[in-house]
Design a protein that fits this description.
Keywords: Membrane, Transmembrane, Transmembrane helix. 72% of the residues lie in helices and 0% in strands. It has two domains: 108 residues, no CATH class; 200 residues, Growth Hormone, Chain: A (Up-down Bundle).
């Protein structure tokens, strides 16, 4: 029983010789085209059609000699499907035309790399906007105008990010001069306001902190100090050495002028605010306290009081110092340590403000005495000058 598409089992010698040549061409197409030509969609299409054409012409020899092989069956299947509608001459013409197209594409592919979509790389490689996977080849493919626009956008984004970081470091600092331009009476008033604000906020922070310790640790501040004696927050800020003194008398003696102390105070308050802000959103796996509403409200109150004192300090018109935040984020009781540090800052702040007010009052008295002395000297000088001028005028008149 014959099957449609089957060929005679014993072909003639002439047909076998011709088909051997056809099979040789088929093998060359199968081997050389993928190696020599850069694989792209048109070339791959041409290659497949060429294989189909060669298969349709060589199916007699393949089937008659090695029809049991899997490759032979596959090629035979392709050839039969294609040869069902085309003659052998048409197959040769199509194969020749497609091979010529493939050869022409070979030269252009060697001159420049194939685009991402034509070569299929966009399906397996990241997009060129993924900067960490960007290659030099992708950069060459970009048009000059597009590359210039992208570089300009990247530079603009970098400048905006740097400006944002600069604002983060100095977002509470005001434009100021090296010297304090406020009138001396206004300085005294600002110091009195700062003392009252510090006194009130310190009392509120201490009361809230005491309640929080009692609820979560069942200890007071002294008990917590013993419990975490060997744990140190190591937070760096300008008032660190003043806190370690732990002596108000020595602290008052070490307090310098307003021009020196106010930038240190303002910078320390800004650092404390930033640490509380960072801690509020910090994700920690070893504690669930930050997820507690009362703990969050306690830290929010500390932030509010620190910010209020910082706003008062800004009224002196001083420049904030540039700073970096460094502290031990692995403290066993990080929330407790940060809030305790804020309380210590407020306690020495009250002592510093009191000392600064005394210094400024002494300066005001000395300035007032010097002013009165200069005024008295100028009055005496004016009186003597007027008296001498009268005698001279009378002498002239007599003469």
């Amino acid at each position: 029983m014959s099957v449609p598409g089957d060929l005679p089992a014993e072909p003639e010698a002439k047909d076998i010789a011709v088909n051997k040549l056809q099979v040789l061409v088929l093998v060359l197409v199968l081997v050389l085209v993928p190696v020599q030509v850069t694989v792209s969609v048109p070339v791959l299409f041409a290659y497949l059609l060429s294989v189909m054409a060669m298969a349709s012409l060589g199916r007699v020899f393949i089937c008659g000699t090695s029809g049991s092989h899997t490759l032979s069956r596959f090629v035979l299947l392709i050839g039969n499907a294609y040869a069902a509608t085309q003659s052998a001459l048409n197959c040769w013409l199509i194969a020749t035309l497609l091979l010529a197209i493939a050869a022409s594409l070979q030269s252009s592919a060697a001159a420049a790399p194939a685009p991402r979509r034509l070569s299929g790389r966009h399906l397996i490689l990241p997009h060129r906007h993924h900067v960490h996977h960007r290659s030099a080849e992708d950069e060459v493919e970009l048009p000059i105008v597009v590359s210039a626009i992208q570089r300009e956008q990247q530079q603009k984004q970098q400048k905006q990010q740097q400006h944002h970081l600069k604002q983060e470091h100095h977002r509470w600092s005001k434009l100021c001069n090296d010297s304090m331009a406020s009138a001396h009476n206004e300085v005294l008033e600002n110091l009195e306001v700062a003392i009252e604000a510090c006194k009130l906020t310190k009392w509120q922070m201490e009361a809230t902190f005491k309640q929080w310790l009692s609820k979560y640790y069942h200890l007071d501040e002294e008990g917590m100090a013993v419990e975490y004696l060997y744990h140190n927050l190591s937070l760096s800020h300008p008032l660190r050495e003043d806190i370690e003194l732990n002596d108000n008398d020595v602290l008052a003696e070490r307090t310098s002028t307003l021009e020196v102390e106010m930038p240190r105070i303002l910078t320390t308050l800004s650092i404390m605010y930033d640490v509380l802000e960072e801690l509020k959103y910090k994700e920690r796996n070893d504690t669930k306290m930050l997820k507690d509403n009362e703990t969050n409200s306690t830290m929010a109150l500390f932030q509010e009081k620190i910010q209020h004192n910082r706003d008062v300090a800004e009224k002196f018109g001083v420049c904030i110092q540039q700073y970096q935040i460094n502290y031990n984020s692995y403290h066993a009781a990080l929330e407790y340590a940060v809030m305790l540090e804020a309380l210590k800052v407020m306690r020495i702040l009250k002592t510093k403000y009191d000392r600064l007010l005394s210094i400024e009052k002494e300066r005001a008295r000395s300035m007032g005495g010097e002013h009165e002395q200069r005024a008295s000297t100028s009055r005496l000088h004016a009186h003597g000058h007027g008296h001498g001028h009268g005698h001279g005028h009378g002498h002239t008149r007599t003469h």
